[in-house]
Amino acid sequence: MRLYINKTILFLSTFSAMIGLAFLGWILITLIAKGITSVHFSLFLNDLVDGGLRNLIIGQFMMAGIASMVAIPVGMLAGIYLQEYGKGKHVRVIRDLSDVMMSAPSIVIGAFVYAIVVIPTGTTSGFAGSISLAIMMVPIIINTTDNMLSLVPKELREAGMALGASKYRVILDIIIKAAKVGIVTGLLLSFARIIGETAPLLFTSETSNYFTLDLSQSFPSLTVSIYDLANDPQESSRDLAWAASFVLTVLVLAINLTGRFLSNKKKGK
């Protein structure tokens, strides 16, 4: 009986995995077929108003970069605190809240930032978009830093203390260096997560057809523009949406592969 149940579960699991892979393959094949035919070099030289993607790509990376500048220090310091300094029930509460935030729908975060930033200021902006992306990024970094530091053997901490080093020097010079590959991998994966987000930016930054570096106004966004272009009745706009989707997918895939490569490199050592 147990053998029969095991074979049944194995078959159902394999069948479900094949269905998921089939849909993923279908999406990728459709994206490549429709997107790669619309990609040309001028896309990267012209702004959206001229039928290009330059301002959108730069705008998306600017907001993600600003979000990273805020989220990485906050997330790493919080993760270090939880693993190295935190004691008591509140540590578990913080970890649980971080896990909840990781699974929170991005559109909810967008609505939250809309309520606390966009409504008081009276306008969407690149700053609001960056804040929403940073909020999404922080719990991922906290979780990654916390988990990677927990994998560092206690003997390394004890050895550093035995040599007379202060706790913060042990953390900086020994523990973080031992976990740096895993932490960097987590940072890359968290960046890949936010670079492809659309829902929070719909409420916070919107998008712009023109090149701008002014974060106090509506800011160019590749993901939001894909949404707008895909709903445009003109075929040329839909072709541009496919091209933008292809470019975004390649960028996210490259970031994810880099993170996986670093992770596998660490395991190889």
From TrEMBL:
This is Phosphate transport system permease protein PstA. The lineage of its organism: Bacteria, Pseudomonadati, Campylobacterota, Epsilonproteobacteria, Campylobacterales. The chain crosses the membrane at residues 9-36, 56-82, 103-121, 127-149, 170-195, 240-262. It is a multi-pass membrane protein. PROSITE patterns: ABC_TM1 (PS50928). It is found in: Cell membrane. InterPro entries: MetI-like, MetI-like_sf, Phosphate_PstA, Phosphate_transprt_permease. GO terms for cellular component: plasma membrane. The keyword Protein transport does not apply. Pfam families: BPD_transp_1. Its main location: membrane. Gene3D superfamilies: MetI-like. GO terms for molecular function: phosphate transmembrane transporter activity. SUPFAM superfamilies: MetI-like. Coiled coil: none annotated.
